[in-house]
């Protein structure tokens, strides 16, 4: 068991990514999905110790770098959070690309990363922007309806929207713009938790719907709030959530290929999104900025009862 890891912290449009760049034990598996299972089975205590309190907090998304599994890829990455593991992570991919650039490990203008749900590409653009091309994204169900019981004042009793996939599973529904503001953050959190509770554990086409995305349209795009698995909300507009949204817009004929959709989070972070068709697949592109905030060497002291996290 390692007693030290090397970590680079960054944030992407406000949402933290904690990238483990060295010191983690090698994972078994020929695919990233197998390696994620090996992580879960053997080292879940390290996941907790890296992202949970007292070393982290519930909004931190971890990213473990591994050797790549596919020819032509630069690295593998497994994303995780305070409650478990993610398929893909859009803000996290931008954070990892910036981290590799910071470490001088990015090579050229692009970084190709293998994830448990597919290979994604990131490229560096001007003004510190990084664009990623995500895994194929799609709608799973249109017109899905949830009745929400106890809820903060002004929030709808019935929500209707799309179940969609953008590397993770989302329920995406519209609410009035006046609710989508930082003054109502506590209410947005309480409401989306109530929505998730009302939905129960829902799996559609093998996709677990574990993110709730509320949005309100505004000129050129939307403002959103995304509840992640657990009790944290995404401070960024959520890359996989924006991908799922863009897929639904494409399928409804509301966004043409290559046209930019501006997705703003309730806390003010912005992603510029578009998509391209590849045969019958929708490949979303998400652009945003990440900044390195710290280089850490966490210590796991055997005498510390909370070295692997609280709870
Ligand atoms: O950006 O895809 C994302 C994401 C998922 C969970 C938190 N951020």
Task: Describe the structure in your own words.
With 311 residues, this protein is an alpha+beta fold. It contains 4 helices and 16 strands. It has an 8-stranded mixed barrel with strand order 1-2-3-4-5-6-7-16. The longest helix is centred in the first third of the chain and has 20 residues, at 32-51. Bound molecules: pyrrole-2-carboxylate (PYC). Pyrrole-2-carboxylate is lined by residues 15, 61, 86, 89-91, 168, 228, 234, 236, 238-240.
User: What's the story with the biggest beta sheet?
Assistant: 8 strands, mixed, barrel
Q: Name the average pLDDT.
A: 97
Attached small molecules:
pyrrole-2-carboxylate
**What is the 3D form?**
globular
Q: How many whole angstroms does the radius of gyration measure?
A: 19 Å
Structural class: alpha+beta
Element-by-element helix/strand order: EEHEEHEEEEEEHEEEHEEE
Low-confidence stretches: none
Helix segment tally: 4
Strand proportion: 35-45%
Q: Using DSSP, what is the number of strands?
A: 16
Strand adjacency order, main sheet: 1-2-3-4-5-6-7-16
What portion of residues is helical?
A: 10-25%
Terminal CA distance: 21 Å
Secondary-structure topology with pairs:
Layout: E1 6-12, E2 15-22, H1 32-51, E3 61-66, E4 75-80, H2 90-102, E5 110-115, E6 118-124, E7 129-133, E8 138-147, E9 158-165, E10 169-174, H3 185-199, E11 203-204, E12 207-218, E13 221-227, H4 239-251, E14 261-265, E15 270-278, E16 281-296
Parallel strand pairs: 2-3, 4-5, 10-12, 13-14
Antiparallel strand pairs: 1-2, 1-16, 3-4, 5-6, 6-7, 7-16, 8-9, 9-10, 11-12, 12-13, 14-15, 15-16
């Amino acid at each position: 068991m390692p007693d030290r890891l090397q970590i680079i912290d960054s944030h992407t449009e406000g949402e933290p990514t904690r990238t483990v760049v060295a010191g983690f034990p090698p994972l078994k598996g020929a695919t990233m999905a197998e390696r994620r299972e090996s992580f879960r089975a053997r080292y879940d205590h390290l996941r907790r110790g890296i992202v949970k309190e007292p070393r982290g907090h519930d909004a931190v998304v971890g990213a473990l770098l591994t050797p790549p599994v596919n020819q032509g890829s630069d690295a593998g990455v497994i994303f995780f959070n305070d409650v478990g593991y993610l398929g893909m992570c859009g803000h996290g991919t931008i954070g990892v690309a910036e981290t590799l650039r910071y470490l001088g490990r990015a090579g050229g203008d692009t970084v190709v990363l293998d994830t448990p749900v597919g290979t994604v590409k990131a490229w560096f653009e001007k003004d510190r922007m990084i664009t990623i091309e995500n895994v194929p994204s799609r709608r799973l169900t249109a017109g899905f309806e949830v009745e929400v019981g106890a809820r903060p004042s002004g929030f709808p009793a019935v929500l209707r929207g799309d179940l969609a996939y953008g590397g993770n599973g989302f329920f995406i529904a519209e609410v009035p713009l006046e609710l989508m503001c930082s003054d109502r953050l506590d209410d947005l959190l309480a409401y989306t938790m109530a929505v998730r509770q009302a939905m129960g554990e829902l799996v559609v086409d093998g996709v677990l719907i574990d993110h709730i995305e509320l949005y309100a349209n505004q000129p050129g795009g939307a403002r959103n709030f995304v509840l992640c698995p657990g009790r944290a909300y995404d401070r960024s507009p959520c890359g996989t959530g924006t991908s799922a949204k863009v897929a639904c817009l494409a399928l409804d004929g509301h966004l043409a290929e290559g046209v930019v959709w501006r997705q703003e989070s309730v806390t003010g972070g912005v992603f510029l999104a578009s998509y391209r068709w590849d045969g019958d697949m929708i490949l979303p592109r998400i652009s945003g900025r990440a900044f390195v905030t710290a280089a850490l060497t966490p210590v796991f002291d055997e005498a510390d009862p909370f070295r692997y996290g609280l709870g």
